[in-house]
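Inputs:
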Amino acid sequence: MENGYNVAVVGATGAVGTKMIEMLENTTLPLKKVTLLASKRSAGKELTFKGTKLIVEELLPESFEGIDIALFSAGGGISKQFAPEAVKRGAVVVDNTSHFRMDPNVPLVVPEVNKQALKNHQGIIANPNCSTIQMMVALEPIRKVYGLDRIIVSTYQAVSGAGINALEELKSQALAHIEGTHAEQLEANILPCGGDKKHYPIAFNALPQIDVFSDDDYTSEEWKMINETKKIMEDDAIKVVATCVRIPVLSGHSESVYIEVEKDGSSVEKIKQLVAEAPGVTLEDDPSQQIYPQALTSIGSKETFVGRIRRDIDIDKGYHMWVVSDNLLKGAAWNSVQIAETLHEMDLVRI
Amino acid sequence: MENGYNVAVVGATGAVGTKMIEMLENTTLPLKKVTLLASKRSAGKELTFKGTKLIVEELLPESFEGIDIALFSAGGGISKQFAPEAVKRGAVVVDNTSHFRMDPNVPLVVPEVNKQALKNHQGIIANPNCSTIQMMVALEPIRKVYGLDRIIVSTYQAVSGAGINALEELKSQALAHIEGTHAEQLEANILPCGGDKKHYPIAFNALPQIDVFSDDDYTSEEWKMINETKKIMEDDAIKVVATCVRIPVLSGHSESVYIEVEKDGSSVEKIKQLVAEAPGVTLEDDPSQQIYPQALTSIGSKETFVGRIRRDIDIDKGYHMWVVSDNLLKGAAWNSVQIAETLHEMDLVRI
């Protein structure tokens, strides 16, 4: 590095890409140059970075010449094809798609939880799934002290996780329904999952499908939460199970999380204290004042918010909590930029 | 009964009351006359019943002279004051508020589950909480065959449960936010709970508070699900715990339900078959065709819809499912009218 890194954002015009650019505007990473890459269709668009206009360039293998760090968020197919091209040209890739996440040669990193895994990177680091990341940040301080035997999570996921067009669809469906269009007549072309056969309205609805269905009638999103948790926490013995649900929220994923800890000695007060003191987490938990995390108030923050921590009625080592974070930031763009910052701090950017 | 019953609807102009009138239009209950009662403020309003106009009358103790069956849904305070007046005058009361639910002298009834409890009524029968009812209908066929050791439920509850004004608030907040009003500027006067101190926007948000906070930082809504389940299933040993969340849906409560059964021999296929054959339940469960229950498509149906039934990843006797029903119908108005029909069928309306 001389005077800073050359950083590329792949998928610069997308819901996550634009947030990556925002996060880079305030990064502690020394920056020399930021290059914005996207599909041919988006090439030529102008975006603003720190007050100057940058032109989006078409993504090509040669785009990565001279790039030190490449942040990818343009779909699994693009990562599969272009991440190796970037690595070949000397860049470290932080990939926000699911493509490399379960590859044993690719670290899957939430900096607050397992930054040590970065030491083994071979050019590609994977950013976990949005719904996994915030749960990891919330649970790691508890796991470190009391261990985790079991996690049952039901998610309340925002539409922005499905991209800019899904956001527009939610808004236009909501307007149409309020103005009198019958639910059966609402136009739906994207959710629950762009790549699946049928589409359903999300406005004033709750869809228990995120991503396609996979083995045993779980969805891929649910398997991501299960498998990624075990990889990030480096513990295949943790019992994890998820029900992933899309709700008509623009941004901010919420999660109803039930855990059973392993060791004796835990209490609601101790768990609150651990959460309050942990990095990346803000405790918002005062029922007497109606203080608890909310999707709407999480927007724009890099933090994960935790509240409604309470003991299970019947199981001594069981606790329930409500975990909320801006899915586009800690769930995607911020975690990616934070990984890049951590690589720099740990002197792991190969140049 | 001569030529049918005289039925009164108390709270006739409310979100549930208007649905009670709809349900009475198609009831199997022999009807002689329907009397609509409400507060002084609503008295004089005209409502349609089977094509004829009925005038809403002011609720007074004397309103119940000659009434055989009174359906109450006007708030706990009204039930406390007027239900005994109705009983005193010979009416049987079906009360949709929480006021009498845990009274040991008051049967708490979901007809598909425990209609035998009606035999012990002393004039008042309580209609359970909306979120409890649909869970009971879904789980009873499983409990009967395999027993239930434990239930963990996270709810996705619609705004209509909080009344007509809450529905209007959701719509106006949604419109304002889409048209550019910042989340912090959205006007909120009702949710999460009319009787509590602070109010938050529900549009594009998820609020982990329904009703006021109670013991141990659980909400009253969560305690209702816990306590009512044990009373309806007549089994204090069932472990039940709930996280109740309001989401921006107009009508149709959804629930992510985890259960552990007691006996050996269960399987996903057997549980699907039990649910499919049970009264009041429709199995909507074909992931290969993206078939699962949805709040939007549940509206207007008396059924409880169950889908996404799958085995827990780690626990042999653990199952997850997604349970949806129209909270104003099976969760309130229909269950009340159904109780009245069942009282008639069992010859338990005292006249």
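Residues 130-146 of chain B form the longest helix (17 residues). Flag for discussion at group meeting.
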